[in-house]
C-alpha cells in the first residue's frame, strides 16, 4: 500500500501543493519552519482523519482562509483508493473514500494504516503512565476494533463508580450492593482489557528487542515490561482490598487504568538513566515494533513517517536505521531533514535510491 499522489489547499502554511510520490523512500528537505512536518501531518489526516499534533481541525486552516482540503490517491492491492478530507470553519469535517462520505470516521481507521515517529513522541518515555497506556491502546485498537469499545465501556463504569464513591462520602450513606453492580461491570471489562494487553505485550516485547539491538548494534541492554496490579491479584480481590482507601480518596485506586510500561536500560529506568540518543533509539524501536506488529496483523505494510529522525543519533545508528527502513520489510517511507547533503550522503552510502523534495516556505519542489 502506498500514497501515489498528494495535494492540498490552504493547509497550514501551504496555499496549494501537489506532489507525486515514490513507492519507496521520499525525503523532504528544508529549513526550520519551511513546512516539512505540516506535509507529514497532511498524510496523517488521510490515514487517521486528524492531525497528529493538534486535535483542533480549524487551527490547521491556513491563516486568513476559511477552509482546507487534502486529497490523496493511494494504491492498495492493485486498486486505487481516493481519499479526501475537507474542513470548513464552523462546519463538520468531511471525509470521503472514493467520493462517498463516511457515516463514521472510525470506519476509515485501519484502511490505510500509518506509523509516525516525531520528536514529540519522547513524551512516551519521559511523561507519566497515561502516555504509555495511550501508546499500547493505540497499537492494539488499530488491529482490534472491539478493544476500543472495551476501553470506552471500562472508562464509563469507572466514571460512574467514582461518582458513587463521592456521593457516599458526601452523604455518609454506603450502599455496598450498588457499588457491587459497578464492580461486576468493571471487573468484566477490566479483565478483558488486561488479557488483551498482556497477550499483546508478549508478542510486542520480542519484536521491540530485535529492533533495538539492530539499531544500537547490540551496544546496550534494554527491556520493557508490562506493569499491572492485575498481575499480582485478581481484580475482584484488588477491589475488595482497596475499598477503604477508595472511600477515603473518593476514587477507584485499582484497575487497568493504573497499568504502565516499564522501560529499562541496563536494569535502570530509561527516563532517568538513558542518554538523549539512547532514549531516541528506544522510542524509534518502540515505533518500529508497532510497524512490524501492524504489518503482521494486517498482512500489508503501513506508511512510515519519520519526522526529524536524524537529530541526536550518531552516524552508526542513522546508517543502521536507514538500512532497516529501506529493506523489504518496510514499504513507503517519508523522511524530513534540514540538510540536503546529509540525506544525499546517507542514501548514497547505503546505495538506496530516494526521491528528494525541497521544501521552502510552503512550496514543494521535486
Ligand atoms: N494554520 C496555519 N496557518 C499558517 N501557517 C501555519 C499554520 N499552522 C502552522 N503554520 C506555520 O507552519 C510553519 C511550521 O511548519 P513545519 O512545522 O512543517 O516546519 P518544519 O519544516 O517541519 O520545521 P522544523 O525543521 O523546524 O521542524 C510555521 O511557520 C507555522 O507558523
UniProtKB/TrEMBL annotation:
Keywords: ATP-binding, Cytoplasm, DNA damage, DNA repair, DNA replication, DNA-binding, Nucleotide-binding, SOS response. Coiled coil: none annotated. One of its GO terms (molecular function) is ATP binding. Its main location: cytoplasm. Residues 2-360 form the RecF/RecN/SMC N-terminal domain. InterPro entries: DNA-binding_RecF, DNA-binding_RecF_CS, P-loop_NTPase, RecF/RecN/SMC_N, RecF_2. It is found in: Cytoplasm. One of its GO terms (cellular component) is cytoplasm. Pfam families: SMC_N (PF02463). ATP binds at residues 30-37. GO terms for biological process: DNA replication; DNA synthesis involved in DNA repair; double-strand break repair; SOS response. It comes from the Bacteria. The keyword Nucleotide-binding applies. The RecF protein is involved in DNA metabolism; it is required for DNA replication and normal SOS inducibility. RecF binds preferentially to single-stranded, linear DNA. It also seems to bind ATP. Belongs to the RecF family. This is DNA replication and repair protein RecF. The gene is recF.
Amino acid at each position: 500500500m502506498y500514497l501515489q499522489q498528494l495535494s492540498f489547499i490552504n493547509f497550514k502554511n501551504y496555499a496549494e501543493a501537489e506532489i507525486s510520490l515514490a513507492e519507496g523512500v521520499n525525503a523532504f528537505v528544508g529549513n526550520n519552519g519551511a513546512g516539512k512536518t505540516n506535509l507529514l501531518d497532511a498524510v496523517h489526516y488521510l490515514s487517521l482523519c486528524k492531525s497528529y499534533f493538534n486535535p483542533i481541525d480549524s487551527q490547521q486552516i491556513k491563516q486568513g482562509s476559511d477552509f482546507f482540503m487534502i486529497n490523496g490517491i493511494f494504491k492498495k492491492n492493485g486498486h486505487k483508493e481516493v481519499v479526501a478530507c475537507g474542513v470548513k470553519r464552523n462546519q463538520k469535517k468531511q471525509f470521503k473514500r472514493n467520493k462517498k462520505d463516511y457515516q463514521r470516521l472510525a470506519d476509515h481507521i485501519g484502511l490505510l494504516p500509518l506509523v509516525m515517529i516525531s520528536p514529540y513522541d519522547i513524551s512516551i518515555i519521559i511523561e507519566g503512565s497515561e502516555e504509555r497506556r495511550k501508546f499500547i491502546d493505540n497499537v492494539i485498537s488499530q488491529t482490534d476494533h472491539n478493544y476500543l469499545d472495551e476501553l470506552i465501556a471500562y472508562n464509563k463504569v469507572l466514571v460512574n463508580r467514582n461518582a458513587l464513591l463521592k456521593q457516599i462520602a458526601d452523604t455518609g450513606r454506603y450502599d455496598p450492593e450498588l457499588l457491587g453492580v459497578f464492580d461486576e461491570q468493571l471487573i468484566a471489562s477490566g479483565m478483558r482489557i488486561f488479557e488483551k494487553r498482556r497477550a499483546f505485550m508478549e508478542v510486542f516485547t520480542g519484536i521491540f528487542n530485535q529492533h533495538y539491538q539492530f539499531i544500537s548494534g547490540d551496544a546496550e541492554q534494554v527491556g520493557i515490561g508490562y506493569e499491572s496490579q492485575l498481575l499480582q491479584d485478581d481484580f475482584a480481590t484488588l477491589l475488595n482490598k482497596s475499598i477503604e482507601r477508595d472511600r477515603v480518596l473518593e476514587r477507584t485506586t485499582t484497575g487497568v487504568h493504573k497499568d504502565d510500561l516499564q522501560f529499562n536500560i541496563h536494569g535502570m529506568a530509561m527516563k532517568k538513566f538513558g542518554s538523549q540518543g539512547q532514549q531516541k533509539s528506544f522510542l524509534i524501536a518502540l515505533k518500529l515494533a508497532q510497524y512490524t506488529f501492524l504489518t503482521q496483523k494486517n498482512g500489508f505494510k503501513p506508511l512510515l513517517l519519520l519526522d526529524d529522525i536524524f537529530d541526536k543519533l550518531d552516524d552508526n545508528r542513522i546508517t543502521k536505521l536507514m538500512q532497516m527502513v529501506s529493506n523489504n520489510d518496510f514499504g513507503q517511507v517519508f523522511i524530513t531533514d534540514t540538510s540536503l547533503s546529509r540525506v544525499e550522503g546517507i542514501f548514497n552510502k547505503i546505495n538506496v535510491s530516494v526521491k528528494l523534495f525541497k521544501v521552502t516556505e510552503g512550496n514543494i519542489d521535486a
